[in-house]
Structures are given as structure tokens and as C-alpha cells.
Design goal:
Blueprint (H helix, E strand, L loop, with lengths): L1 E5 L3 H13 L3 E6 L2 H11 L3 E4 L8 H11 L4 E6 L4 H10 L3 E4 L4 H12 L9 H12 L15 H11 L4 H8 L3 H15 L4 H11 L10
Helix pairs in contact: 2-3, 3-4, 4-6, 6-10, 7-9, 7-10, 8-9
């Protein structure tokens, strides 16, 4: 997996790059602002960008929107110190597949990368509740139609409910007594039916429309 690191702190970039290389990943480049991240993505075509939010000239959120508009297949995970709900919400709206904090442990970071390698996106257990809070406070979308709730099959709803709780595909497969490949199939179908780009956006839409609910203890 080819990785680009976008952060305005060179020491942080170098530290993460060293760690990723030690884990056998291919760090193809670094960028100190959002515009340089866009240029590097065009030139290097990374599979994954680890993107900071607060950067000079062009923020990580702006860069994410620009990159996703031009190269939608590029996966972007925000790696930031900000746990503000507004930043989280805007990151997911901009197309980021995941959102993790810089104070996570090396073990947690390794798990994030493994999730990405397995075609998943880092979606922490507290993420769903925060997305729901932001939709309640900020959303200006019209009320969902009843037909929206009938798009998914019962099994797809079960899978989406597990995703909203922060479960990985492996965990979902174990809980629902199905294979991981079946979970992957259901997720592709869910994204297609809901017309969203990634797991986080699917959860956000599903929470807003009532397709799934936040169960106490998930957050």
C-alpha cells in the first residue's frame, strides 16, 4: 500500500514515515500543506493519504474535497488532534474514509492500517454518536421519505447497525454468523443503494434517516 503523509509538522511526518516503513509500508511522499498534498497525489497516486486538518495555505478538509473530486478512488484518513464534532462532520462530508486522533497508541494505529488494508475504514465506536449529534445540530436536508427506509434488506440493515456500533467486517461476520466476503458484499450493496462513498457516510445517512440507531454503550 502506497502512503502519502500530509502534515505541517515535519517531525511528525518523519516519525510516522519511519513507523510505516518499519511495518513494511511504502511511504511515497510527504506534504506540508493541502496544495502540496494535491500536487503529490496527482504525481504519486498513493493508495492512502494520512491527512492533518489544520495546515497552512490549504487545510486538510479543503485538500480532501479537491482530491476526492479529482481522484475519488484515493482513500483519505484524517489524523488530527481535533476531536471537535464539527471537524469530524466536515471531514466525513468532504469524503474522508476515516478520522483518528494523534494521541492514539501505536497498537491502535496498527489496527487502523490493518482495517484499511482489509478494505475497511477506521470508524471508532464514538464516531457514530458524534455524527448523529452533528446531523441533529447542522443538517438542513429535508426529512427522509418513507421509501428511503425500504431500500435495504433486513440483513443489510443488520450489517449497517453493526457498522454504526464500530464493528469491523471480521466482527460483523462473527456476530451474524456469515463470512467476511458476505459482509463485504453487503457493504458494497449498502453503499450503492444509499448513494454514498464510504462506511462513515453510510452511517451518517442511516442515523439521520432512522435506518439504524445508536445503542447506549456504543459511544
Amino acid at each position: 500500500m502506497k502512503v502519502l503523509i500530509a502534515d505541517d509538522h515535519a517531525l511528525f511526518r518523519d516519525g510516522v514515515a519511519s513507523l510505516l516503513k518499519a511495518w513494511g509500508l511504502d511511504v511515497v511522499g510527504q506534504a506540508g500543506d493541502g496544495f502540496k498534498a494535491l500536487e503529490a497525489t496527482r504525481a504519486l497516486r498513493p493508495d492512502l493519504i494520512l491527512m492533518d486538518i489544520q495546515m497552512p495555505l490549504c487545510s486538510g478538509l479543503q485538500a480532501t474535497r479537491l482530491i476526492k473530486a479529482e481522484m475519488p478512488e484515493t482513500r483519505i484518513v484524517m489524523v488530527t488532534v481535533s476531536d471537535e464534532e464539527e471537524d469530524l462532520f466536515e471531514a466525513i462530508k468532504s469524503g474522508a474514509e476515516g478520522y483518528v486522533l494523534k494521541n492514539m497508541s501505536g497498537e491502535e494505529f496498527s489496527r487502523v492500517l490493518n482495517d484499511i488494508a482489509n478494505g475497511e475504514a477506521p470508524l471508532s465506536q464514538g464516531l457514530a454518536a458524534k455524527i448523529l449529534t452533528e446531523f441533529a445540530r447542522m443538517s438542513r436536508e429535508p426529512a427522509p421519505k418513507e421509501s428511503d427506509k425500504d431500500q435495504l434488506s433486513d440483513r443489510e440493515r443488520e450489517v449497517l447497525q453493526e457498522v454504526a456500533g464500530g464493528a469491523t467486517n471480521k466482527e460483523i461476520a462473527a456476530r451474524l454468523f456469515i463470512s467476511e466476503s458476505t459482509v463485504n458484499f453487503h457493504m458494497k450493496s449498502i453503499l450503492s443503494k444509499l448513494h454514498v462513498r464510504n462506511r462513515a457516510q453510510a452511517v451518517a445517512y442511516a442515523l439521520q434517516t432512522g435506518l439504524v440507531r445508536v445503542i447506549p454503550g456504543d459511544a
